Amino acid sequence: MLGKFFRNFKKKSDQTDFYEEKPDIISSVDENQSTVGAEADTKHSASPSVTDRFEALDSGEESHFSRKWSSNTLTIAFANSKGGVGKSTLAFISCLNLAVKQPDSYIEFIDLDRQATTQDSLKRFTNDRFCLIEDPEFLLASGGPNNARIYQHLCSDSFLKSSCKRRLVFFDTPAGTNFVEYSFLNDADYLFVPTSSSDADLFATRKFLGQLFLKDEGFSGHSITQKLPTVLVIPNLLETRQEMMHVYQSLREFPCYLGHPIIYSRLFKRTFGREISDYNVAELLRFTNEFGDWFADIITNPERTQSVPKSLFQI
Ligand SMILES: Nc1ncnc2c1ncn2[C@@H]1O[C@H](COP(=O)(O)OP(=O)(O)OP(=O)(O)O)[C@@H](O)[C@H]1O
Ligand SMILES: [Mg+2]
Q1: Please, what sign has the CA dihedral across residues 80, 86, 88, 90?
Q2: Among 86, 166, 210, 302, which one is least packed by beta carbons within 10 Å?
């Protein structure tokens, strides 16, 4: 399975500075992957899943998430306590991709980073179904998130005035995010965790995931619904094939998914800024098209991530 990504890397590498190191152990990764795949189980499947929520939506039933936000709202957060791993970049690309690929979804973007770089860059793309939610009350004077206000917003159903059936709420979070202070993250439907393959980033990512999966300290103490978000690690800024392996090996004990990687490219230098042109954005979306397709597939097919893997499972 990883082999597929690597083949694509090769194609992209022709257009970028991506280079190959000595022949690697891809085939053994593929074997590892199928073993890991076989281990995927349904240990959390008794919990209500995102699929249940879509089914409830389709059948018009009130789901057991009524104490949370309504079943037609999906929350998608980009987070890692480490700075500079690509949270804002991925949030930017992902929400624009879905806006293009899912014209019947109502998309909201909430930037919890005081620097608001993603929000500023997205401003000119807003329309009646793609909104930036700018509420100063989302942040406390201390700089931390106002979880109560965020829940209140998620529980509001003002979007129903639009003709869209489904609301997707994207969150970009700042460096230093943790599951205690940002407790709403424990109740997110999807948590995308970008990381590079550098030791510093992987060390921080391990700590971050450890906080979520160590139930006593993280998740169970701070969640309203007591259901884990679907966690997908996104290897970013990759320059060699070996780096993908390194990410996999460093995080393999975590019961979550290893998502579609993104390679290093100078194109990303022009992601942000009010003056970014349509040409820059189109080029970026073209470059990340495979990631965009993968992302849309994950969000629109929740059954793909319904089972929680025992250890890192490439999807
Ligand atoms: N795949 C990539 N290739 C090249 N540069 C990238 C890539 N992904 C992100 N970058 C660049 O890395 C820098 C950090 O990215 P970004 O701002 O998205 O990280 P972040 O995790 O949001 O950082 P912070 O924690 O400071 O908010 C940016 O300059 C961005 O353009
Ligand atoms: Mg950022």
Answers
A1: negative
A2: 210
